[in-house]
Amino acid sequence: MRKDVRILLVGEPKVGKTSLIMSLVSEEFPDEVPLRAEEITIPADVTPERVPTHIVDYSEAEQTEEQLYQEISKANVICIVYSVNNKKSIEKVTSHWIPLINDRTDKDSRVPLILVGNKSDLVEHSSMETILPIMNQYQDIETCVECSAKNLKNISELFYYAQKAVLHPTGPLYCPEEKELKPSCIKALTRIFKISDLDNDGILNDNELNFFQRTCFNTPLAPQALEDVKNVVRRNMTDGVKDNGLTLKGFLFLHTLFIQRGRHETTWTVLRRFGYDDDLELTQEYLFPLVKVPPDCTTELNHNAYLFLQSVFDKHDKDRDCALSPEEVKDLFKVFPYMPWGPDVNNTVCTNDKGWITYQGYLSQWTLTTYLDVQRSLEYLGYLGYSIIYEQESQAAAITVTRNKRIDLQKKQTQRSVFRCNVLGARGSGKSGFLQAFLGRNLQRQRRIREDHKSYYAISTTYVYGQEKYLLLHEVMPDLDFLSEADMACDVVCLVYDVNNPRSFEYCAKVYKQCFIDSKTPCVVIAAKSDLHEVRQHYSLSPHEFCRKHKLHPPQPFTCNMTEAPNKDIYTRLTTMAMYPHARLRCMCSCNRCTYCLCQNLLKLELLRSVKAQLRRVVYNRCSYNCVWLPLFLFLLHLLTFF
Question: In this protein, which residues make up the domain named Miro (predicted)?
């Protein structure tokens, strides 16, 4: 809503413009009236709408036409004053003042007009018969008020209506000729209805109506009041109430009724509570609340945000198959002005056998958006009404900004839940296959993906020592000259080469030496397409020798050319390395996964030498992923991560 209101009074000389202002201020008719009243400001605390109001007088005797034009351009509402006992002043309303104002204002943003019939104390009849045809002719006229500055009749009402015309205008909401809501208003109210329909059954039941009432007006409706509202709808339309709940048609009818009865403020209160401005557009402040993200910090959704998104998913998963069909996705995004997810999303997250986004994939996509573009995530949450449903000041309450990564490294532990892995490699090395395998797709399924539907991201969950974490894989373009710092910023790096291509590993070696040799970011070399014959690489060192020289893990064999879903152990390992970048996770027994090997590396600390010796005696020849000592190792690992 506007922060202040500027009211301009115009009209023919001697119609009583100045007297109206002075009577309002002094609450009595002035004995002497100047040619023009000075601009006055009424404080917010004494106005009905709690908004500061500036009242400006115009005098033809004291002001030029240019000054009048300037005042018209600054005014939020213009009161055209005429004298009810002077027919010439009434004729001037249409012959002079309305054309003059329209010529000086933009057609798409006309200023609302109030017709003010002053000196009603001098006549016994009303001027409304003459004024009503004028009101019907000009849409910009909000209302007409007959008043008297002398006996103070309707003076306060006049300026209240002027305020109301600015703060709660009819124009954006209602078309008087058609006697129906305007399309933009219907669109906004439809979104509000869908957000308030918490179970998505197309009906606002009593609980949903009470929640809506409490959200917008801070008070619930009594049971009898609820029934009275529904009875009003029943009497006027057959399909406004269904199963004792309010349908969308009934909801729209109620707001039409409010406007027709002059209660525009009711509809405007609802619209503004749901984030709309005077043009029925969602405000920037509503969609993009401020979230400060310091350098080396990331953004994640918090627990309440995931609960909200879960409720949105459940609301639209009508067949309860834990996946969203294309129709269900479309229904979910009906509250958006555009479709936010393209076909690439289905190749970014997990889907079912039909290619529909699963519950896990749905949450993963939201996690990805929040991590990569928090402003976009805030916008989406705004469309869904997060701050309204969860009664928060803004959707910024859904975001957690993680602490600086350098602090995580110093403390050797992290509270983050999302970790980024950049996947680099020469063209054709198998990067895309590596991403899609993370989503459980073998080579046969990957071949069905259309070229224009491919994604450079893949995100899903992994479990590291019982904790669910999100791993975000990003396929980086292979052109080294165009790699930016943002491309390199990540928690772990995958260097992928094709074992069947003799020139593939050279790119990995070049990237490592150029970008990561002095970095603290863990790196893993992936020997992709390991089902094919391995050929000698045209590089001075073999991949194994290169890894040994630079103290990296040996190349990890990987293939997605299999009948079943690809193995995901490598992704768990990547997440573990991202969580514990301070630990050199070199496997001592070539099993590449056991807890003992992780402990071995963490136990290099001088302080824990004795514990290492004990572990060696206990678990010698017992190194197994499912060994009986696993609970002990997990407990020791938990302790060791604090050092």
Answer: 2-168, 416-580
